[in-house]
Amino acid sequence: MRYIPRKLAPVLLDASRHFPAVVVTGPRRAGKTTLLRRLFPKARYLLLEDPDIQERVRSDPRAFLEEIQPPVVFDEIQNAPELLGYVRTLIDTRPRRMGQWLFTGSQEAPLMRGITESMAGRAAILQLLPFSLAETGKANLLHGGFPEVLARPKARSLWFASYLQTYLERDVRAITNVRDLVTFRRFLALLASRHGQVLNKTDLAAPLGVSVPTVGEWLSILEVTGQIILVPPYFENFGKRLIKSPKIYWGDSGLACYLLGVTSPAELERSPFLGALFEGFVATEILKSQANQGMRKELYYFRDQQGLEVDFLVPRPNSNLWLIEAKAGKTVRSSMAAPLLSLRRALTTWSGRLIVVHRKSRSQLPTAAIARGVEALDVERFVQELTANR
Predict the structure, then answer these.
(1) Which fold has domain 9-127?
(2) Least confident of 26-40, 55-69, 106-120, 187-201
(3) What residue ranges in 140-196 does DSSP mark as E strands?
(4) Class of domain 147-289
(5) Parallel/antiparallel/unpaired status of strands 197-198 and 247-250
(6) Which of 23, 132, 146, 160 could form a disulfide with 288 if both were Cys (CB 3.0 to 4.6 A apart)?
(7) 1 falls in which pLDDT band (50, 70, 90)?
């Protein structure tokens, strides 16, 4: 597959002009290394998963860094977090040299703690997720957005199988001591069947015969390595009882399909998970748009105990708030607008847009209003709208 420009590239280049260090986080194989090496071809590249490099860092980190002439790309910095403190010292000796220290990392939360402690004010922190629809039309529900899957879609199943095996052996064991990897693998499949649902740890623990704290630990592993998305409930006080637990999605629809055993477009159309998979696809497109613009990730859902539910609430510029329903069907009906209109009436002050996002049909129907003030956008048009500041 030819090189596809990443939407994060301009933001990354701008950050390198204003910060001595730039950190790009995101799940494994999302394209972090490819992007940095393409944007900074003259930078030296060092993979910190290399055992020889790790030994040199541990034995004498100062000597290791003195041998390096920046700019330099340190790939997978979570394997040598002790370097951050020494890099900070070097930055402080030449604080006006920008874009000299470039890092990638696949374990977001532990890495962020290290950067907060060692590199505060010295590093720009960005996130690169797998390809979005805004970057390539090849990204879709069945294949997701990982670059290697889109480059070789016929090898999709083998790639995901290998990805999970590598992930289990490398990342999971690096973060915590999971003794029973077979049960953990079952947990991944069970979690895929809860894609798009409100998180219930007890519901996950019981079929596996593990404790709720164990499930919590496993969920934390998936979250810090960028495999799952937890969407919190919207926080505004509506004067009614709200559901407080987050909704959970897999971060890549292709991986979710693989875990659910969905292997073809025909199987996807028949799958009882089609609606949840499309909802998760819309969620990830929203988050990818925010990450690619260097924005803070802000995505919420709404559900109260009276049964009113809206899939997504997205804060936008100028204090606007988008209310969004994701529908996997290609035929849009006015009844789909009902939850959006109900929630709008419950909001004391509100300005923004009411949007029903649906799958694109071949008929290329124009954007339509399906109820007063409610727009119907196919997912491709919706993704385009996400990049517009309105």
Answers:
(1) Rossmann fold (3.40.50)
(2) 106-120
(3) none
(4) mainly alpha
(5) antiparallel
(6) 132
(7) low
Q: What is the predicted pLDDT for the residue at 268?
A: 97
Instruction: Identify the CATH number of the domain defined by range 291-386.
Output: 3.40.1350
- Cα 258 to Cα 232: distance, rounded to the nearest angstrom: 25
Residue 40: pLDDT band with limits 50, 70, 90: very high
Spatial CA neighbour of 340 closest among 317, 313, 365 = 313
In whole angstroms, how far apart are CA 93 and each of 15, 63, 64, 90, 226? 20, 16, 17, 5, 34
- Between the two ends of the chain, the Cα-to-Cα distance in Å is 34
- The DSSP-derived string for 216-284 is HHHHHHHHHTTSEEEEPBP----SS-B--SPEEEES-HHHHHHHHT--SHHHHHH-TTHHHHHHHHHHH
Q: Are 50 and 44 in contact (CB under 8 A)?
A: no
